[in-house]
């Protein structure tokens, strides 16, 4: 008797399950056929980095202050500075994304909004070297932007240097006179 | 099968379960000694995923430790973030603004739902109900989409900071969240009919892997494992953190102590989480989300301890500061590690087919065991 009851209740619970499965058959599908279709990615998604190009100034925002490097837990970023002070910038900016956790700490650390994350997530590769992104692929606008950045900054630096030299020369002349005269007058 | 050993009376066989085994949910190796179908002894072998996180914490600044906690309990990484940030906050005497606290609780509960849905999906598959896997992951997908909207990542959120949270809720988040909660409750109700009431499922779980309350207490079990054994212990109630003391929710406790009880606790917890999230949305004040932080954070010499209720149990961090920008010592008390330690006591005498049911019901995450 018990066996029959068992069989019956087992069969009923099987039927109940099949009913739910059947009801789900009519539901909209929730999957997409990647890579032919792509699901939407949230705007905040933390994907590949970009160094925004500032059209108004004709250069990248990055000043080479290295705050992002200090914030990064896994030493992803290496950079080569270009100049210093007011016109300070970067000559190269390399990110080894093979080490990156996409944790957003570097972006938060940057005081100049010079590094941002995009929604691009297809970064897989079969070669480690492909994971190292140079400035030419990180800069917004690619190699052209990197070159423009370099030109703008080096021009500005050259101008600054020339201005300084001129000032120093002027100061040197007047100062030189003063220095040359002082002992004479004293003597 | 590795070898056969002859004892005085009979032959026992040692079998490796894992490290590459889909039902161990990670790289766990169980060395079980079998007498026919019955388990004589069991030895969990861990360490395949050891990354030395506690040492790595010592070499990094306080803020830099947070993304590593994502990689401990990767099913519920926000709880890890919160636990370590609370320890840091206690060291530095920081206090997150109220709005940030509400958002933290909201996200942690959302993460708890996501984590329990993974449990539901994988556990049902372990037992043989593959359909549930698809349905639970369908719901989890919506949950992860919400988390992605909010934090920018799907699994490793890194979203809590000492002193607050980095970004406020995005536009349209509340609507999405309410829709998801409605869907979730419907799906849970459907799951009750599909799985919880299923004869075979119940037959596989009821009376299997019984943990007595004494044993649970002796081993330091927490979370659903303790609550399935009749211990009414939930850090959110016993030592409320963030704004949990202002929220109304029940702690489900079942007294049978078997796999079914642990399963039921988790299912009910999802409903309670939904309740908490709704309250958070309603009560959340406007305002700041981040408190004032010094540029270089150097907490005074001292130590701090934080306790949180992660989906797996009590997750704690102990942190020592020596006044430098890096912590001097960090230790994580992870529930999965503790629960795994119960296996050698739970398994002897059960049939090999029940091992997966018992292991799955502990819901261990190996990233947290090995850390
Ligand atoms: S996202 Fe994190 S790991 Fe990656 S470069 Fe930035 S700070 Fe470093
Ligand atoms: S990206 Fe930002 S933080 Fe990093 S060096 Fe450039 S300006 Fe500094």
Report on the structure:
The complex is a heterodimer of chains A (187) and B (371). Chain A is α+β, with helices and mostly antiparallel strands and 187 residues long. Chain A has a domain of 119 residues: Alpha-Beta Plaits (2-Layer Sandwich), CATH 3.30.70.3270. Helix content of chain A is 44%, strand content 13%. Chain A contains five helices and seven strands; from the N terminus they run H-E-E-E-H-E-E-H-E-E-H-H. A three-stranded antiparallel sheet of chain A has the order 4-5-7. A two-stranded antiparallel ribbon of chain A has the order 1-6. The C terminus of chain A is likely disordered. In chain B, the strands form two sheets. Chain B has a four-stranded antiparallel sheet. A three-stranded antiparallel sheet of chain B has the order 5-6-7. Chain B is an alpha+beta fold. Chain B folds into two domains: 43 residues, no CATH class; 317 residues, Cytochrome-c3 Hydrogenase, chain B (Orthogonal Bundle), CATH 1.10.645. The model of chain B has no long low-confidence stretch (mean pLDDT 86). Chain B contains 15 helices and seven strands. Classes of the chains: A alpha+beta (187), B alpha+beta (371). At the A-B interface, helix 1 of A face helix 2, helix 5 and helix 6 of B. Bound molecules: iron/sulfur cluster (2 copies).
Distance between the termini of chain A: 132 Å
The succession of helices and strands of chain B, N to C, reads: EEEEHHHHHHHHHHHEEEHHHH
* Total domain units of chain B: 2
User: How helical, in percent, are the residues of chain A?
Assistant: 40-55%
Overall shape of chain A: rod-shaped
| Mean pLDDT metric of chain A | 81
Tell me the helix content of chain B: 40-55%
CATH architectural name of one domain in chain A: 2-Layer Sandwich
Topology summary:
The complex is a heterodimer of chains A (187) and B (371).
Chain A: H1 2-25, E1 49-50, E2 53-54, E3 59-60, H2 67-71, E4 77-82, E5 89-96, H3 105-109, E6 116-117, E7 132-133, H4 135-138, H5 142-186
Antiparallel strand pairs in A: 1-6, 2-3, 4-5, 5-7
Chain B: E1 3-6, E2 11-17, E3 29-35, E4 38-45, H1 53-58, H2 66-69, H3 77-92, H4 98-127, H5 130-151, H6 173-196, H7 199-205, H8 213-219, H9 223-228, H10 235-238, H11 259-283, E5 302-310, E6 313-321, E7 327-333, H12 335-340, H13 343-346, H14 352-362, H15 366-370
Antiparallel strand pairs in B: 1-2, 2-3, 3-4, 5-6, 6-7
Helix pairs in contact in B: 3-4, 4-5, 4-11, 4-14, 5-6, 6-11, 11-14
The structure holds iron/sulfur cluster (2 copies).
The site of one iron/sulfur cluster has 13 residues of chain A, from helix 3.
